[in-house]
Amino acid sequence: MKQKIIFIVSLFIVFYSVSAIAENIRLKADCRQRPPEMMYDKKTRTCSGPLIDILNLAVKDVGAKIKWARRPFQKSYTLLQRGRIDILPRVIKTKERLEDVKYFSAIGYQVKNILFAVKKGHENDIQKFQDLKKYRICTKRGTAYFDQYNDDTSINKVNSIDDSDLTRKFLRSRCDAAIILDIKAFEKVMKSMKSDDYAYAKYQYENKIGNHFAMSLKSKHIQLFDKIDNTLKKICDSGKINEIYQKYNIAPPLTDKLTK
Predict the structure, then answer these.
(1) pLDDT higher than threshold 50 for residue 258
(2) pLDDT of residue 22
(3) HSE-CB for 181 with a 13 A CA cutoff
(4) Is 31 among the domain residues?
(5) Which of 40, 82, 149, 246 could bridge to 70 as Cys pair (CB 3.0-4.6 Å)?
(6) Do 20 and 41 sit in the same domain of this protein?
């Protein structure tokens, strides 16, 4: 009887220890201003939005927590490559990035046309892809647009570090056009700079983008990947993802089969 009690107590101690260790796991993740899915409040220094809630929920389900910080995407991705942060939301999937990160199952996708901003009156300057080679194109460094554009070294790309830098260079005529992946972000910066001297070129690229979280292959918590991935799938399959988006009055991402 005494041995049985000792055995049960030992099991309890082991179980409690494992649970305590799991509860003490802190994953590091970065957010950035990408409304309405991801936002940063400068006053409270907090990240919010559907993507934040979804990842918090998935990580909590495996017995861990997230410490959030705010950085521009390129800085965040560099830290992700090095394993200095563990997870990054909304990372476009490319073959090159597979060398650095492991992608969780997409929580959905969105169709976002990639546009080219030009000064008013120059909408007809860019009517096809080849026209891009005639001009200087402001581009955000580290952003994946589409393969043809990403891989074409003959295009004169003027690198920018973020949306504000790209917009300033566009307004100061450091480039002739700017490639725009996030239209709302670009237009918000233009408005803050009190300028409406822009239009969109006739040429645009229709892009179907999977909405992925990515985990660093160098993360010391990479062993949690499968558990988090399974939880993300459950969140999507159960319809919980729709509830989270509805809380912010935002339409959830499309969830039929991804084409790429």
Answers:
(1) no
(2) 47
(3) 22
(4) yes
(5) 40
(6) yes
Is the same domain home to 135 and 89? no
At residue 185, the pLDDT reads: 87
Encoding tokens for residue 42? 């400068």
Q: pTM for this structure? A: 0.68
Q: Report whether 114 contacts 205 (CB < 8 A).
A: yes
Q: Which residue, 198, 253, 229, 221, is CA-closest to 38?
A: 253
Place of tokens 């899915």: 37
Per-residue confidence band for 125, with pLDDT thresholds at 50, 70 and 90: very high
Cα 158 → chain centroid: 22
Q: Looking at the 3D structure of the chain, how many domains does it have?
A: 2
φ and ψ of 37, to 5 deg: -80, -25
With a pLDDT cut of 90, the percent of the chain lying above it is: 77
Assess if residue 144 is contained within a domain. Answer: yes
What DSSP designation does 87 have?
A: E
